[in-house]
């Protein structure tokens, strides 16, 4: 009886198991990267990566487990079996035990068979193989049953059943199968197949010898997948690493280094250095800026989690181009010191205070821009608690802090 086509399909999972493990570790890396950017990135960042990584990782792990359960099966084509028969590598195998592994292939049980084999030529040996045994054929594999086999390689242990499935009425070759405990046990190497008379295994060994290389490869794949997810948010990750040293999980964008990152990213995205307002909180920076310097059509941009989003037209459009000012007009590195100074004056923590930077209102009643924000840029914020707030203002260079 030629080797089962179902068995051949199962055995081809040797390479597939390796690929599935790579996919599973890639999913783990993507999941890790998704969790990282969910924590440190803007809202919604990492959601897609996490939602894809979890089901892919579970599916790959389950299928990899199926492939692992097929590891002791033997892969050989009908041509290999015929070559063994033509070379006289045949014998009798006694089935000493039949165990179901709990895995099913095409709704048929994958079984583990303990065999004792007496080749027509050469010493006897014992081994254990895995193969799919159809439910209807289980009686043909009961312990004590003897079956004709082809020994695929000289000395075994790979064999393939070649009889019709019926126990022979008498030994066709005049050999007797010895007791199992009287012969050496030769294990089947996992995920091997017979090609051109040689035993072929996976590129990376599946045993202990190949474990360090496999672990290294899996780690590289996981790290690479995590890096691909994190890369678009690398700035937020770097900021968070710095923040962790100060006992925080996220960067506080009101502090000089993080606010400087936001400034550079926003100015690059906007395409020039003119703005009409800057709002700075611990988690985001919102800027309203003209589409073209000197014109009044103004849009809004937001920096959050290391990335800039263009939010469209500003809710309130300026009336005069004079409302614009340059980033360089403002001492951004003084924002946090001003907050700390204001908080110290009222005896409260800085908390979640938000800073607004605009031009002051023109109070010249005779000016064309009277009552519009066309005066000198200034920094405004409030420090308070549930009992009240104190408002502060300072010049754009960080001097002259006053409370109102």
Q: In terms of topology, how is this protein built?
A:
Layout: H1 5-11, H2 13-40, H3 47-69, H4 78-86, E1 90-105, E2 108-119, E3 125-132, E4 146-151, E5 159-161, E6 193-195, E7 198-200, H5 211-230, H6 234-244, H7 256-270, E8 274-275, E9 277-280, E10 284-290, E11 298-304, E12 307-313, E13 325-326, H8 335-346, E14 355-359, E15 377-385, E16 388-395, E17 402-403
Antiparallel strand pairs: 1-2, 1-4, 2-3, 4-5, 6-7, 8-13, 9-10, 9-14, 10-11, 11-12, 14-15, 15-16, 16-17
Helix pairs in contact: 2-3, 2-5
Describe the structure.
α2 runs antiparallel to α3 (47-69) and α2 runs parallel beside α5. By secondary structure, this protein is α+β, with helices and mostly antiparallel strands. Helices cover 31% and strands 26% of the residues. β15 and β16 form a beta hairpin.
């Amino acid at each position: 009886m030629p080797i089962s086509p179902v068995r051949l399909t199962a055995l081809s999972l040797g390479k597939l198991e390796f690929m599935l493990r790579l996919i599973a570790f890639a999913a783990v890396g993507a999941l890790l990267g998704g969790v990282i950017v969910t924590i440190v990135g803007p809202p919604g960042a990492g959601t897609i990566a996490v939602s894809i990584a979890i089901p892919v990782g579970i599916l790959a792990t389950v299928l990899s487990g199926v492939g692992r359960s097929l590891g002791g099966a033997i892969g050989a084509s009908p041509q290999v079996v015929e070559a063994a028969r033509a070379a006289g590598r045949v014998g009798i195998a006694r089935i000493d035990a039949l165990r179901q592994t709990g895995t099913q292939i095409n709704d048929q049980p994958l079984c583990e068979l303990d065999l004792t084999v007496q080749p027509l030529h050469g010493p006897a040996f014992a081994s254990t193989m895995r193969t799919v045994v159809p439910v209807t054929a289980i009686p043909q594999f009961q312990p004590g049953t003897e079956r004709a086999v082809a020994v695929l390689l000289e000395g075994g242990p790979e064999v393939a059943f070649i009889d019709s499935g019926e126990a022979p009425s008498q030994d066709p070759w005049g050999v007797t199968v010895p007791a199992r405990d009287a012969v050496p046990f030769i294990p089947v190497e996992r995920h091997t197949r017979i090609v051109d008379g040689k035993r072929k295994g996976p590129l990376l060994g599946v045993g202990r010898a190949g474990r360090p290389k496999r672990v290294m490869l899996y780690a590289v794949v996981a790290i690479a997948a995590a890096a691909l997810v994190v890369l678009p948010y690398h700035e937020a990750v770097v900021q968070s690493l710095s923040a962790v040293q100060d006992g925080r999980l996220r960067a506080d964008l009101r502090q000089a280094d993080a606010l400087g990152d936001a400034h550079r990213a926003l100015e690059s995205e906007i395409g020039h250095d003119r703005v009409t307002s800057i709002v700075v909180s611990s988690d985001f920076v919102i800027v309203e800026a003209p589409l073209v310097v000197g014109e009044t059509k103004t849009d809004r941009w937001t920096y959050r989690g290391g990335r800039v989003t263009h939010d469209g037209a500003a809710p309130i459009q300026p009336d005069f181009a004079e409302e614009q000012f340059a980033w360089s007009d403002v001492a951004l590195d003084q924002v946090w010191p001003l907050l700390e100074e204001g908080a110290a004056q009222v005896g409260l923590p800085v908390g979640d205070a938000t800073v607004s930077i605009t031009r002051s209102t023109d109070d010249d009643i005779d000016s064309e821009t009277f009552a519009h924000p066309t005066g000198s840029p200034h920094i405004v914020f409030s420090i308070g608690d549930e009992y009240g707030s104190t408002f502060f203002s300072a010049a754009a260079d960080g001097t002259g802090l006053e409370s109102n």
